[in-house]
Amino acid sequence: MDFSLDPDQQALRDSVRRMAISRFGPKAYTWEDRDEYPWENARVLAEQGLTGMVLPEEDGGHAIPLLDALIVLEEITRVCPHTADVLQAANFGAIRVLGQFGTPDLKLKVLPEILAGDAIITAGMTEPEAGSSLTDLRTTARIDGGEVVINGSKTFNSNAPHAKYFVVWVRFGPKSSHIGAVLVERGAPGFQVGNPQRYMSGEAFSMLYFDDCRVPIQNVILDGDGFRRQMQIFNVERLGNATRALALAQHAFDLAVAHALERRQFDRPIAEFQGIQWKVADMKMKLDASRLLIYRAATELDENGNPLLINTSMAKAFTNQAAFEVASEALQIFGGYGYSKEYPLEYILRRVRGWMIAGGSVEMQKNKIAEEVFGRRFPQRPVRV
Ligand SMILES: Cc1cc2nc3c(=O)[nH]c(=O)nc-3n(C[C@H](O)[C@H](O)[C@H](O)COP(=O)(O)OP(=O)(O)OC[C@H]3O[C@@H](n4cnc5c(N)ncnc54)[C@H](O)[C@@H]3O)c2cc1C
Long-range contacts: 328-337, Cβ < 8 Å, 24+? Predict the structure, then answer.
């Protein structure tokens, strides 16, 4: 068993890091204050062949291994987390649902724009009354002649203020097996994107409203068994989430180590205090363990090329927690400077916190892990008598 990256992967990592530093470094960490979406960087990603990395070539993708794509994501996140948001949307999220289940015509209509960095696509899953228990979603879809009519609402739709395409999880009937997905384009009749709101990280999201929204029947991506089938793909999104958490925690760690060597108190570098050394040792173990769990999840794939649920849940839950702890300790090592806006530590801490909730919370991942360990399902709903 070889735990190191092969020479091609190392070369990929190094060249992406150099490119990210030169192209994205100068404006990194300024996007939030300027309240701008990094469209210019979306086009650079497209130019560099970094959109649709894991999509098949017939869809305009590059069909590179998932692990290689995550290496790219890690490097870009370390340099510019906002550009990494674009990279995530153009590779690991709703785009893969469209890529795997959309009809050739639908893909031909939508994918080229996204892969060129001219549009983004988001996933509308969560509803006000359906978060962790996503199968409770109430947004309905019914076929009416050549159209689909959608009614309901979604919340926490990340990137919605900037998105053109929305993969909306809907139900075609009362059962979980009736859940499917429909592509809705901004401007569709009866579809409204709510006012922009902000997460604690500064990222923008909106509510989505569907009031007899009508889209062509060709926009149906899945009309049944959609929950199970989309969830398999969603493991890729979750590994993207974990990788970005790891990357930001690694960046915080690197800054903290450099600071500990430079900052002097009591007439010596603070790195010479055992209290700091043990923090750094714990942080290093958490980062390495996270990386190994992510790499394993990205290499042990099922017959459709998707990561296994158990590996993904372990990688995501562990890394989400580890990243928050590492970021918090890095901030602590910086003292008051870490808590100031002068350094990115406070942003990193705010940012990694969100990934403990997004994409299936840490608790929900642990539920999955426990089911695997005990070899049985633990239904979360109350028993009805
Ligand atoms: C940064 C960010 C980005 C997001 N982006 C998107 C997006 O683009 N599209 C989208 O559709 N959604 C998005 N979401 C929403 C996200 O998927 C939900 O917030 C998440 O699934 C949790 O749902 P909830 O907020 O309704 O919390 P709830 O489900 O109400 O959970 C509240 C708390 O209870 C815990 N809990 C619930 N059930 C159980 C259980 N059975 N066992 C143990 N603990 C439990 C949860 O872990 C959580 O701590 C995003 C969220 C965040 C924070």
Answer: 329/256, 329/279, 329/282, 329/283, 330/249, 330/252, 330/253, 330/255, 330/256, 330/283, 331/252, 332/279, 333/256, 333/259, 333/260, 333/270, 333/276, 333/279, 333/280, 334/255, 334/256, 334/259, 335/263, 337/259
